[in-house]
């Protein structure tokens, strides 16, 4: 027992870090009944934490400035104007500008090449992985997995080092694509149906032909907008004479 501690009549000590029982926190009762002060959670962080110097530097770098080129005034970001002045100085023989500009360009090209290479490598691994998984599921009689993007939609040109995604990349995009393809397939069915009715009901052949051409245009508009892997060949296509216009309302096909 320290000299500052005092023993109460109930036998427990009272002193530093040992308040009397009547002043201790009670179980189930908040020690801060008024709660957190209003706005305490949204107080502005410390000045050093939001990097104001970097923000100011970037703002100045991209601030538009006006330059004169011959008789023309052009507006450029300040940083681009600096690079342009450096390029002019380099062309005029300034060795420091030549060395600095050449080094900057080399560094940027190197970084871009590295980023492009890593991205192509990632997409190549992605295609190999999912093609193997799809093949495995086929052998086991399992449903084909539907990764997004589909590996067949990842098109890589190893000669040029370029690549692109020719298909949906998200569930939302796939839902829209499925809706368009369903409408195209519906148009295919309508074209065949109207072709049949043209023959079976010749008295209404002209009407059925107009409807057939209308559905045919919808099919073509949707189909032509899709990548090659998703395209289909229209069966029962109606031939249009050179002097015959495909009349009809295009509003639905435009919406599609």
Automatic annotation (TrEMBL):
Signal peptide: none annotated. Residues 22-107 form the DUF5681 domain. Residues 243-256 have a biased composition (Acidic residues). It holds the Pfam family DUF5681. Residues 233-242 have a biased composition (Basic and acidic residues). InterPro entries: DUF5681. Residues 1-54, 233-256 are annotated as: Disordered. This is DUF5681 domain-containing protein. It comes from Sphingomonas sabuli. The lineage of its organism: Bacteria, Pseudomonadati, Pseudomonadota, Alphaproteobacteria, Sphingomonadales.
